[in-house]
Design brief:
The chain is mainly alpha-helical. It contains 4 helices and no strands.
Length: 115
């Protein structure tokens, strides 16, 4: 079984797959701009999987920030489009990414201070 601590690339790859699925859905609904944005965020997540082992702290923080900002944008866009309930899921994704980024930053800051 894979462990996230043993292979941190798993989270980046899964996030990329989720954003790519959203991109395909947006392209099916004839929203080229939203589909392109989804694919751009997916590409950033895939690119982070390459660098996460060399620069884990800054790669994780930047990915959490990019994912949170894009999820906040999607929540706003779905709310503006009049879709109900889906914007709450994207708000939750944004909140999870913010909390995970803060926890990661605090834990690594404490580990650096202890060393």
């Amino acid at each position: 079984m894979f462990s996230i601590k043993k292979n941190p690339r798993i989270v980046s790859i899964l996030s990329a797959v989720a954003f790519m699925a959203g991109g395909f859905d947006a392209l099916e609904n004839m929203s080229v701009a939203a589909g392109t944005a989804h694919f751009a965020v997916a590409a950033v997540n895939l690119l982070s999987a390459r660098f996460i082992l060399r620069h884990p702290r800054w790669t994780n923080l930047s990915i959490f920030m990019v994912n949170a900002l894009f999820a906040a944008y999607l929540s706003y866009a779905f709310n503006a489009a009049g879709r109900h309930r889906i914007q709450y899921a994207w708000m939750l994704v944004c909140l999870i990414n913010v909390v995970a980024g803060v926890i990661r930053f605090v834990r690594e800051g404490r580990a650096a201070a202890d060393a």
